[in-house]
Every structure is written in structure tokens, then in C-alpha cells.
Amino acid sequence: MAIMNTSSHIPHVAIIGGGFSGAALAWHLTRNSNRPKRITVFEPRPFLGAGLAYGATDPQHRVNVPATRMSIDTQQPDDFINWIKQTNALANDPAAYRPDGSVFPARSVFGRYIADRLAPFLHTGQVIHLRQQVASVYKRANEGWVITDGQGRTISADIVVIATSHPAPQPPKLLQDAYLGSAHRPVLVTNPWQPNALDSIGVSDRVLIVGTGLSMADAVVTLTACGHTGGITAVSRRGQRSRGHAAGSVSPVGQFISPPSRTALQLLRRIRYELAANPHLPWQALFDRIREQAPDIWAALSLAERKRLIRHVRPFWDTHRFRIAPQVEEVLHTRERAGTLEVLAGRLTDVQVERGRFVITIRRGATTVRHEAYNAIITTTGPAHDAIIHTVPFIHQLAAAGLVEMDATGLGLHVDAIGRACVGSRHENTLFVAGPLARGLFGELMGLPEVTRYAEKLAVTLDAVPSSFPSLHHSEQEWAAT
User: Fold this and answer.
1) pTM for the complete prediction?
2) Given this model, what pLDDT does residue 74 score?
């Protein structure tokens, strides 16, 4: 066990979470720092940068935008595609290349790219990767932060950055209750991102997928690649499934911030007007411009209108904004045409388990009711944005100490304009939030380009935090990566 020398104090930044958000922040903070500092990233996975999104092991799970639009550095937008060429990373994946020249590699390839970019800093020790879960974080009066792992070992830090991902979704309660109350349980998959999660589903099984977004599409392509030919029904309240990309490249078009829309209804009418006024343009061109202007659009709305936008418009935005790779869309289209994939608007109103199968009641609208039997159910309802404080122990502890709270929109944690964690009008000078957990204030922080830009800005902010920190006099045991 290595003990770090703290006699000559160098500011120590602890980043909790080593998915893309945490890894990108560590990379920018190390690469562009104006003064020495120690950076420790807590991430249980073997590599930094992969996280849930880019740690996917299924080769069917592809990035959702062309590789030419993905990079850890906005100043070098071609960095990822150049790395692919230099490393011949797609030698065994000819299907990644599309007829129009675009490239959609498996998500794990992007995870390897991020790990490769961080490797030199890990080698020199400028960044330390601790493969540990964080159990608790607390602040000693005027003495910085103390972070404890699940085994009780502690480390001190001058700055803490929360870069964890949103919690996984929980299955609907009526589904969970029926499943747990049954002696002869059918297949229920609540975490389809785990390796081999769908292996228990037979090739002819009837499958219900609760949720119709990107994760539903991932589940369908995985099942199809494994030879599944049974019927699949995907259901969500609005029955919106993720859309695909335009045929060929498009340039963003439209104007959505001048003058600003002050209500969700004004914004929706504006989008509809632009779509009607440009029938010759792919809708993707208009939505790409909305994405560019999203921070300003969001900033112009009051809290009440932001909540209204989330409640009424967000499902439609998500299915147009978060698009599926062409290879995935082809699989969905093929199954829809074959009649083995059906996407429904509806909600589950009753779940029973009979003879080893789920018997489901789905209500569609005010009167239409369907009763169907399924061999297996997969839940893909999206991240549990509003559960972060209750499901992550160290964040729950920080909330109990009055150091963090939910943003009023329910999308993540309350932060100020430079990313500091806030409670009411108070902020903690050395506690920051990175990645999608900060989206309540900034609006669009789920896509990779937006997360990258935010990491770059946050790195500049952290580098400017005063270098004169209080001495850490208390006894501690600090551990090196194993």
C-alpha cells in the first residue's frame, strides 16, 4: 500500500466517476493546467472513459452519431476518426462503414479511444485511477474533503467533482410486485446493459420491452443478432421510438433564439412553423440547429416553462435528438416490416404471472385495452434522473449535510453557472458537478459534444481555483491504484 507524500502540498482534485464525463475532465485538466496538481479518478471499471455508454461489450451497440463528430477535444474534431485510421481499429468491422462514407463504430471502440488518450497521463502518474466505489464524502471544517471507499480506506482532496452517471431505471412497481410474488418466474431483465443479460430469452419467445428509446433499439438488435425471431412489443406512454439520421450529411438550418421563446408553447409553435416552411429540408437539419442553440433556448425559459417543456415536449425531443445508427435502424425496419416488432403508445395497468408467463394489460387511450402474454420482459425506461440523491450513498450523505440538492427541474443536481454544487443560493467553493448531472441548469448535457465543451470549461474553472489551500493536519491513509 503506497502512502502519498503530503509534506509539500500540491492541490488534489478528486473526480468521482470515470466514464466519459470524468475522463474528459481529467484529460483537459491535466493537459491544459497552468500549475501542478494531483488528479485522482474513482472508477470501479478497468478503464477510464468507457463508463456505461462506451463500456458496452456488444458489437451491435454502435455510436449514435458519425465518428467524425466525436472527439475528446473540440479543437480537434477529427481526433477520433484519425485515431481509428491510425490504429486500424475497425479492421474486423466492415459494417461500421456506410455507403455514404460515414462511420458508425461499436461504442466500445470509442471507449478504447478515450482510454488511449488518457494512458500517457496514467503512465506518468499525473492522473491516478482508483478502481474503487466511493462510499462517503464529507468536508472537515476548513480542512478540505475526506473520501472513503467501501472498505473504509480514506483519501483527502482539496476539490471534489461529482461525475457519476444517472441511476439505472427501476421497473414499474406493478411489474416488480407480480414478478417477486410468483413462484414460477418468467424472464425479467431490468438491466439489459449487463453482459449476457438477454441470454435467457429463447429465440421464439414473445418479448415485451417497456420503453421505446435508444435502449429499446439496443435490445432489439442484440436479440436479432442472437437469432431471435419471436414477436417483440415495445410500449411507452407516447409510443415514440428513436429516429434515424438523414440520408447524407446536412447542415443546421433555422433560427430559434432571436427573439427568444418565453414559453414551451411558443417554442413548439416555432419549431412546427420552421418544419412547415422548409418541407424540402430533412427535419434533422432543423433539429441540429435547435441542438446548437439549446443552451440559449433553455436559459430564456422560466422554471415553470422548463418543467412544462420536460413534461410535454421532452419525449418527442429525445426521439428526434438522440438518433440511432443506420445499422440499427435497418434492423428495426426489417423487423417492423416482418411483423415481429410493434411499437405501441400505452401504459401497463395490470401484470400477472400465469404458468411461467407474464399476462399484461396495456391501456391505449381512454378505452382501448389489450391483454397479452409474454415469455420475457425487458425494462428500458431510461435513467432515473430524479433518484440520484436517494440511490447513490455518497450523494445522499452530501445532501443530508446540506451540500447538494436536486435541481428544481428534477433532471440532476443544483449547480451554479460555473458548475459548483448549490443548495438554495449557497454554493460550496470546492464541490463541483460534471457531465449530465448538471443539465438542470444548462439544458443540453446528454450528447457527447456538449459534455466535452462543458468538461473543457470546467477544467479552466478548476485550474483557476486558488492554489493556497488549508493544510491537512489530520491523519489519513491514502492508497494507490491497484
Assistant:
1) 0.88
2) 92
Comparing CA positions, the residue from 72, 105, 75 lying closest to residue 87 is 105
pLDDT at 407: 93
Q: How far is it, in rounded angstroms, from Cα 379 to Cα 254?
A: 36
Q: E-strand spans in 140-184?
A: 145-149, 154-157, 159-162
Strand order in the sheet with 426-433: 127-130, 38-42, 12-16, 159-162, 426-433, 420-423
The 8-class DSSP code of residue 293 comes to H
CA distances from 302 to 259, 407, 424 (A): 15, 14, 17
Amino acid code (one letter) for 20: F
DSSP per-residue letters across 405-468: -B-TTSSSB-B-TTSEEEETTEEEEEEEE-GGGGHHHHS--SSHHHHHHHHHHHHHHHHHS-S-
Please name which of 288, 263, 262 lies closest in space to residue 274, comparing C-alpha atoms.
288
d(CA 280, CA 275): 9
Q: Mean pLDDT, 10 residues at a time, over the chain (482 residues)?
A: 48 94 95 83 92 83 92 94 96 93 94 96 95 92 86 91 83 81 82 88 96 92 96 92 86 89 92 90 91 89 92 85 92 96 92 90 82 93 78 94 93 93 93 91 78 92 68 33 31
Take residue 366 and report the three cell numbers written for it: 381512454
CA 474/CA 31 separation, integer angstroms = 31
- Measured CA to CA, the distance from residue 472 to residue 181 in angstroms comes to 53
Q: Which residues pair with 373 in a beta bridge?
A: 359
**How many Å apart are CA 229 and CA 386, to the nearest integer?**
36
Q: What is the pLDDT of residue 386?
A: 72
**What is the tally of helices (H) and strands (E) in the chain?**
15, 17
How far from 354 is each of 210, 223, 359, CA to CA, in Å? 19, 24, 7
Distance CA 37, CA 209 (A): 47
Cell of 211: 420503453
* Other C-beta atoms lying within 10 Å of the C-beta of residue 465: 15
Longest dimension (CA), the chain: 72
Contacts of 165 by beta carbon, 8 Å cutoff, 6+ apart: 17, 19, 21, 51, 52, 383, 435, 436
Q: Please name the residues in contact with 155: beta carbons below 8 A apart, sequence gap of 6 or more.
A: 14, 40, 130, 146, 147, 476, 477, 478, 479
Secondary structure class of 165 (helix, strand, coil): coil
Instruction: Determine the Cα–Cα distance for residues 331 and 108; give it in Å rounded to an integer.
Output: 20
Exposed/middle/buried for residue 429 (C-beta within 10 Å: 0-12, 13-18, 19+): exposed
Which H or E element spans position 236?
strand 232-236
Q: Please calculate the CA angle 434-290-278 and round it to the nearest 5 degrees.
A: 165
Residue with cell 455507403: 99
